[in-house]
Amino acid sequence: MRRIEDYGLSQKEYQHILETLAREPNDVEIAMISVMWSEHCSYKHSKSSLRRLPTKGPRVIQGPGENAGVVDIGDGLAVVFKMESHNHPSAVEPFHGAATGVGGIVRDVLAMGARPIALLDSLRFGDLSEPRVKYLFSGVVSGISFYGNCIGVPTIAGEIYFHPCYTQNPLVNVMCVGLAEQRHLKFSKAVKSGASLLLVGSLTGRDGIGGASFASETLSEESESKRPCVQIADPFMEKLLIEACVEAANLDTVLTIQDLGAAGLTSACSEIAAKVNKGVRIDLSRVSVREKGMSPVEILLSESQERMLLVVERGEEERVESIFKKWGLRAARIGEVTDDGFFTALYDGKIVAQIPAALLTQAPLVELDPTPVLLSPSCVELPMPRNLEEVFLELLASPNICSKRYVFEQYDHMVGIDTVVRPGHDAAVLRIKGTSKALAMTADCNPFYCSVDPYVGAQIAVCEAARNLIVVGAEPLALTDCLNFGDPDKPQVAYQFEMTINGMRDAATALNIPVVSGNVSFYNETEASRVHPTPIVGMVGLIEDASRICSASFKNPGDVIVLLGPMSDDQRLCEYTRLIHKIEHVLPPKIDLELEKRVQRCCLNAIKDGLLNSAHDLSEGGLAVGLAECCIFGGIGAVCELWNDSRADFLLFGEGQSRILVSLVEENLERLIQLAKNENVPIAVLGRVTGDRLVVKLNGRKLIDQPVRKIKEVYESSLQRLVNQ
Amino acid sequence: MRCAVVVFPGSNCDRDAFHVLKNVFGLDCHYVFHGDTFPPNEFDLIVLPGGFSFGDYLRAGAIARFSPVMESVREAANRGKFVLGICNGFQILTESKLLPGALLRNKNLKFVCKDVHIKVVNNATPFTCLLERGQVLRMPIAHGEGRYFVSKDELKEDQIVFQYCDERGNVTEDSNPNGSFLNIAGMTNERGNVLGLMPHPERCCEEILGNTDGRKIFESLITYFVRRQEHEAN
After folding, report:
1. Could you tell me if A223 lies within 8 Å of chain B, comparing CB atoms?
2. How many CA atoms lie within 13 A of A711 on its CB side?
3. Does residue A656 lie within any of the structural domains?
4. How far apart are CA A656 and CA A149, in angstroms?
5. Which CATH fold would you assign to the domain B2-233?
6. Active-site pick, B117, B200, B204, B205
């Protein structure tokens, strides 16, 4: 027998196994336990911290614990969503790593009985000037494009940041949003003993065995040799699974659906059983395999993609099987739910594994040992650049700010014909056919803030995501997260993680936005580098009246441009300090959650009252970049005059939070001022929408004067230029 | 007008086409599964929708042409019924030889999804009878294999229905999103009752989506159909 350490288990964990079983586990059992107790499957380092997040709300139908979160949107409908990482696979095999990442999260949403309706991607890469980064970037984008386009789910939003800390550790986080009729939702609580287990979809092969364990280690020189751990993507099979599962979910006799992801059958079966204190008995000889001679362990741990497990009322299997047959898919009855609480696997008529299902799903938790990291200075003296207009153009071309058109034009973002607000804006919006409603969605996280102050960075990630929904006129419903960190056994990483959870908790609580699902990805580090704490926040909002959708683009000449929120010269960390002054280690902008809440409420009310013609969240690049984006999106110019004694550079480019740039017809201005006054929100008139140039003056002096055509060219061509350089 | 939307296993614009025909234009619309067949007079319009018919890992539409339903589509086309192939549907029509030419990988080898402009070259078809020659429409494309190619001896000029162009209607290299021969975006058969086009008219038929240029193609068809019926009745 292999040594315990070879299975990645500690002595303490092995003792726990011996005590529970009152015997030595056999080779099959220990392999199953070892994979299920990997960080990737067990969340053993994060579970207790995650419990601090707020998860309840009047609209929450299902919080964390199932395949995806579920939120009530009225009309008997529910929105289902979750985000997940596929970082390690993408680091060694970017195309299939990213593609299977899309596939996995789609099946999570499908498992709830929902039809997937949208995808969002949050990506992180190193510096694009490096050839390997270009390879990873192109591979990941093509992988997402290949998979998402084929399955016919529009990829409608996302975000990308570049920083050397991601050179060896790219991040690929994918969020899927689904729509379901509430009466067809599937939950694990419906599972009952005697019900049949149907394995559907692809054949089970030797691919991806040990993928979960691979994802629970830091990357090293040897990672390249783990390429076979990465699964191969077959989006056409996934498309068939989607259609068949959506159809099957309409049947009440389908009790629950579970996707096969990390740890394959082992994970899917034990999850189904353990959640309702039941057992399962499966016959591995009945699993359709891709090649001869697969051992029981290989069948149990295969991570072959595009497979699902359905729990079906006994005697009703044929009806379900006929649906899969219609779509050309296999459905094999591999076993049943039992009362005994055991995961029993047979092969050739013999029992090859028999252990309590709950032992598999409840790994002993590991306590974090956080050590506080010294905080950076709040600000430093920086020289004033000679030409702010040049700085402005440089910022517009920064890969962290510029348009991601080069990427999102490779994704079908319109299939389904619901996309009302397309990618590239604060949030994407999908109308819901047959209703007056629409859904807004976004994913956000500024990792630079999080790197310096994970607590504040996490708060800002939540607030910015909410603000991005508000500006299109949506009420935030709930959020999902994907928390990307280094090795949790390292005290600094543990500290970053704990502070991140606290930041998310405080912001989500203040804004009343429950966390309904999420994913943690640790070990995103190599010997040389570790990723910044990167807690991506995915958020979905509801627009009750789809005729009141707002967007960032300036619309009409003569409209007044107004800033909701403080006219700040926040002299803290921002893209400007990073790009121009190469300063990264100063504190991020301050965030006042109460002010944030009031600004958001004021803006949303103004949109609902039909006062605004445009609204745009100010984020990276500050006021100047915000103004430029409104002009670029609208294809129209603006003239703004600021009167202020603060530093011009930080007035233009500082990233003070809780600020929204809006435009409106002058007749509505009084009412907007009144709304702001009621909410105690600072408000300032900046100028007007006009002409075909963006002009910004400070105290009467022209700082920026550029044709919109030119800034559009800079903003939209930069990424492609960097990729092709 | 009785319409069919053909569903291949990997079609993913089938429900979009169905929604537009049924809910936007109020037409009598039915799905037909790829393994099924139908009598040639059953439908007045048959739509082959966008998507990835059979995964299309090797060549788009190469397997779909062997589907039983395609025999019915061919017979209906021979009877003069309207056949509209959009995107993957266009690819299937060329693979099935219902239209000349072939659709190759985009010139830059990348999938492309964006709005383009197309110019009406031939308005003497059922699909364009309400449009002016030279009229410019804005329409979304979303494809990885849209570079139309046809040999010169196979091509009859009047079969070109739409060409990619700029906003003002100039047919330029810059406005060609995929490297298509002669900027061809849409082709019809000699008889004029079968149209294949890479842009997606069904994606721009509703105000809320910000563009209704696609309506003109469906409205043309409906008008043509009604006129023909009136003509036949007389």
Report:
1. no
2. 32
3. yes
4. 38
5. Rossmann fold (3.40.50)
6. B200
